[in-house]
Amino acid sequence: MTADSDSSLYRQIVENTSFGLLLTDLDGNILYANPRQCEASGYAVDELIGRNTRLFRSEKTPIELYRQLWATIAAGGIWHGEMINRRKNGDLVNEYIRISPVRDGEGGIVGYLAIKEEHFARDANSELAGRLSTMDALTGLPNRDSLLSQLGEIISNSHASRRGFALLLIDIDRFHRLNEKLGQIGADHILLEIVSRLAEGIRADDLAARVGGDEFALVLRSINAETLCAEMASRVVNALAKPFHVDGQDCQLTVSIGIARYPTDGRNAESLLRTAYVALEDSKRAGGGQYCFYVRKNGSGTNGGNDLTNELRDVVLSNQLRLHFQPQLSLLSGEIVGVEALVRWQHPERGLIPPNAFIPIAEESGVIIAIGEWVLAEACRQMKAWHDAGLAQIRIAVNLSARHFHLATLPDTVADVLASTGLAARFLELELTESAMMHDAAKAVRTVDRLKQLGVRISLDDFGTGYSSLAYLSRFAIDRLKVDQSFIRDITSNPVNASITTATIAMAHKLAKVVIAEGVETEAQMHFLRRHDCDEMQGFLFSKALPADELEIVLRKGHRLNFDLATANSDQPALLLVDDEPSILNALRRLFRRAGYRVLTANGGAEALELLAVNPVQIIISDQRMPEMSGVEFLSRVKDLYPQTVRMVLSGYSELSAVTDAINRGAIWKYINKPWDDDALLQEVRNAFHMIRSP
Ligand code: C2E
Ligand code: MG
Ligand code: MG
Q1: Residues 6+ apart with CB under 8 A from 441
Q2: What is the rounded (10 degree) CA torsion for 605, 609, 610, 611?
Q3: CA-to-CA distance for 231 and 558, rounded, in angstroms?
Q4: If you average pLDDT over residues 480-494, what whole number do you get?
């Protein structure tokens, strides 16, 4: 066949195929349409050439779909999907379309080819018709019905995983005014922009829906802790507070958010949505531009949250706030190097209320600013008084809420407080959270810089619980990272959290930042952190937060951390024996003691991990069959936590397959048959020590 006959063959195929074909340029202007396409759309071919494919659009296809389409093909991808288009005579036609880029000889994209197949729009069972009934036409998000049915599913998953979740209802304040001002098209633009800002802020498995004209819903899967919900809600409030640009004009809006949490606020989809609406109402009543949690109404019909809110309003004036101080200690010298000021509310009837019970409410209502200013001034005053009394020259750390941090006047306030109390700036440290820095990073960087110019220190609180990376945070002039307690809690037994912490320490040191561990409760945690070069710690191991007079005593007495190890004598080779059988443990202990080893013993994996955190150990011999944790499991964790150790397992013949598998993974160096031969075992251990000394 010749080239000519080839091309006439192609032409025949193209002209007679039962698919509609369209060739366009890069902007969607039609270069070619085949007869089937003309027939399907009702236009003659010369009515199509040179026109834009927008010609076929009906308002029935979600705008989001067009966005996806253009994003896909402009990036060189192939898009396929369904659309409802309009014929020349106005009828709707349901089409399945596949669009691919057309490339020139060098591979550059020069246009697009669309292949279309008609579906019958009146077919009530059409997949698209079905999907459109669950989808919001403007935004492409699930609509209210779809949200309700998906909530049902999320509730059953939540049961299975035993993790709660939260529903946030977001309503635009005074949306009708925007509608009047911008017209419907302008208002639609804003709605679409809102969707993309929401999409930026949520995690991949969260769910967004449009449940009314100006109402959106967010489902935060597996999050229902109050602080995390509050953090998310304030991110949404902030993200939507930035100006919108529509038709050359700037406009601003605020939103109100109602938060309902599963399972406490509702046990099924409808009741959860209802309680979220109640919370939304509360938020609107409080003036909009904020979020409210659902609070169960009590008998008298008042909202408990609002009670607290009302009382909080004059908490500062009525002199009911108290500061407690928790020591921060150097892991090098063991000395107290600072204290963190933690606020409490001395309520006349309810007693001492912890901050987590009122700070979120104070943030909602804005009272947090007054509280924050009081805390700042009181903390600086107290520290200056201690300095003047001749106590150690240590620093004071003060927590700043995100809302306070974003207040333009904050640096001036800080400067005023320092001037009026006379505390030198270098003794003040401000604790910020990641969420405070996430919103409007450029502005946040400037604020941090302005604070640093005053000479105060900045630390990043609860590090690791937010969404940002250390790389992102390196843009900020932060002095100190506070590794969150959730990582410290199981640091001696959970290799993942241990690695996160040790990697954080290493990276922070590279970036010349100091690392402090929060919530250190045990000696084992302290020694582990110390051995991994963590600089400082804070936690109940040394002291909880104390009232000023009690802390003063601690400072006067010069209390400090004690790093002494009861068993320490690290010159002697140390061996850890793990077995749940006391008689075996005793026999092994005697054997190795006689041979001159320093011996530690534990009756199970958990106890052994605690010992390992505190003591330098070179060799570990563990029984395989133990009730709480098998020897293989224990030694696998040890491999991740302390890779330099030599690990051996004592096992009976029947457990051999699990053990050989662990040997292959490198978790275990040797296995020793039970019952063992004393001389052979001693020889193995000598070999092991030899191996460590001359690797
Ligand atoms: P945070 O800043 O991360 O403070 C540490 C919290 O952990 C404190 O709780 C402290 O008592 C507690 N903690 C310290 N060591 C241990 C430990 O070893 N084990 C355990 N389980 N907990 C430990 P607290 O005082 O209840 O404060 C809770 C949160 O309230 C603070 O978390 C902070 O986010 C906020 N907060 C406290 N005071 C203020 C304040 O003045 N302003 C602002 N904006 N927030 C504050
Ligand atoms: Mg803190
Ligand atoms: Mg913290």
Answers
A1: 472, 475
A2: 100
A3: 39
A4: 91
The rounded distance, in Å, linking the Cα atoms of 646 and 621 is 9
Report how far residue 99's alpha carbon sits from residue 116's, in angstroms, rounded to the nearest whole number.
Answer: 9
**Tens of pLDDT along 265-324?**
888 888 899 899 888 988 887 777 888 888 875 433 334 445 677 788 888 878 999 999
Q: Is 458 helix (H, G, I), strand (E, B) or coil?
A: strand
Closest Cα to residue 348, out of 369, 327, 318?
A: 318
Question: Of 501, 492, 497, which is closest to residue 634 (Cα–Cα)?
Answer: 492
Ligand 1 nearest-atom number relative to CA 538: 15
Residue 533 · residue 310 · CB < 8 Å: no
Structure tokens at 39: 């027939």
Selection from 91, 90, 109, 88 nearest residue 100 by Cα: 109
Amino acid identity for residue 447 in this structure:
T
Closest alpha carbon to 340 in 549, 537, 488: 537
Sign of CA dihedral 260, 261, 267, 270: positive
CA of 36 to the centre of ligand 1 (A): 70
The interaxial angle of helices 548-557 and 368-388, nearest 10 deg, is 30
- Closest-CA residue to 271 (of 162, 154, 151, 165): 151
Tens-place pLDDT, residues 628-684: 889 999 999 999 899 889 999 988 767 777 788 888 888 888 888 888 889 889 988
Structure-token match 């048959």, residue found: 673
Residue type, 39: E
CB 429 within 8 A of CB 395: yes
Q: Using CA atoms, how far apart are residues 418 and 401, in angstroms rounded to an integer?
A: 19
Q: Give the CA diameter of the chain.
A: 103
- Per-residue pLDDT of 378-387, as tens digits, reads 999 999 999 9
Query: How big is the chain, counted in residues?
Result: 695
Read off the tokens for 148: 């309700």
Reduced to 3 DSSP states, what percent helix, strand and coil does the chain have, rounded to the nearest 5?
45, 25, 30
Report which of 315, 304, 303 is spatially closest to residue 348, judged by C-alpha positions.
Answer: 315
Nearest to 577 by CA among 569, 595, 589, 565: 589
| Residue of 328, 399, 428, 522 to test ligand 1 pocket, by largest number of atoms within 8 Å of CB | 399
Better-scored residue on pLDDT, 427 or 692 = 427
Of 74, 110, 108, 113, which Cα lies nearest the Cα of 97?
113
Q: Which of 544, 540, 516, 513 is nearest to 530 (CA)?
A: 516
> What domains are there in the chain, each with its CATH number?
3-131 (3.30.450.20), 144-307 (3.30.70.270), 318-563 (3.20.20.450), 568-693 (3.40.50.2300)
In 3D space, the residue among 28, 23, 129 whose CA is nearest the CA of residue 84 turns out to be 129
Residue type at 591?
L
Q: Please classify residue 173 by burial: count the beta carbons closer than 10 Å to its beta carbon, then call 0-12 exposed, 13-18 middle and 19+ buried.
A: middle
Please list every protein residue whose CB sits less than 6 Å from any atom of ligand 1: 326, 342-343, 354-356, 359, 372, 375, 399-401, 431, 461-462, 485, 518-521, 538-540, 545
Catalogue the E-assigned strands of 473-579. 480-483, 514-517, 536-537, 546-547, 574-578
CA Rg, the chain, in Å? 33
Q: Which atom of ligand 1 is nearest to the CA of 433?
A: 34
Tokens of 96: 């399945």
